[in-house]
Amino acid sequence: MVGILETAIRRSNAHKHQQEFLKRLDVKLLQASAGDDGWRIFSLEYIVGPPLNTVLSSVVMSDYLRIFNFLWRLKRIEYVLSTIWIQQMGNKKAFSALKELHSDFQKGNCLRHEMLLFITNLINYIMVEVIETNWQIFLKEVRKAKHLDEIIAIHKKMIDIMLDKLLLTQKNESLSKQLSALFELILKFKQSQDVLYTSAIEECHRKVLTISVRLLLPHRELMNHDH
Q: Which residue segment(s) compose the domain that 26 sits in?
């Protein structure tokens, strides 16, 4: 896991940050339940010590962890929907011969497109309207702060606003459950598409084998006749 994290840092803009901050970043594995995969138990942890922990207290860091886990789930859904498209395009030529499955492919592609459009718009909203906007407001207000308690209060206010807009507060529990149900539905859709593509590939191989056998049979019969 740590090796994967280091690779991810090297391949992103994160590697431009000072090593002092990158060394504080670590992998945290959440408690796993039956059936959980790496996506569900993986998380990141940023180790904070004095004097930063005065502002970034354990409670605040727990809130950041909740925000990260939510964004991580979103990126998983985006990745899953993208892999469906890659699967279909990678086998497009072979699948074109399976006319009996054209309707299934078309319906699946339309569903995937609508799901990805929703997730992409949601991610853009979160990154721009929620995170970036509130971060800029935080920077503006914190420059006017006159003492540490005021900075702590401004920071807590930013976190609370983000949690609320990300539906991670108790008052938004109903909407949060609906969104989680939608995520699970997309994951089930991915499983159904995997089954469809696996069956389609097997059918393509079967047809190729059948054609090969038919082409070889006249040749073998001719050889037997000569003998």
A: 1-47
3-state secondary structure of 169: coil
DSSP for 82-122, written as a single string = HHHHHHHHHTHHHHTT-GGGHHHHHHHHHHHHHHHHHHHHH
Residue pair 112/190 in contact by the 8 Å Cβ criterion: no
Same domain for 28 and 127?
no
Q: pLDDT below 70 — which residues of the chain? A: 1-2, 32-38, 208-227
**Residues 30 and 136 occupy one common structural domain:** no
Q: What is the pLDDT of residue 222?
A: 46
Half-sphere exposure of 206 (CA within 13 A, CB side): 7
The domain total for the chain is: 2
Structure tokens of 117? 């459009």
Q: Show the tokens assigned to 211.
A: 């054609």
Q: Tell me the CB-side half-sphere exposure of residue 220, using CA atoms within 13 A.
A: 6
10 and 103 belong to one structural domain: no
Q: Please give the pLDDT value at position 15.
A: 78
The whole-model pTM stands at 0.80
| Contact (Cβ atoms closer than 8 angstroms) between residue 123 and residue 78 | yes
Q: What is the pLDDT of residue 116?
A: 93
Burial letters for 136-160: b for 16+ Cβ neighbours within 10 Å, e otherwise? eebeebeeeeeeeeebbebbeebbe
CA distances to 12, 89, 197, 205 from 95, rounded to whole Å, are 35, 9, 9, 11
Sign for the pseudo-dihedral over CA of 10, 16, 20, 21: negative
d(CA 23, CA 54): 20
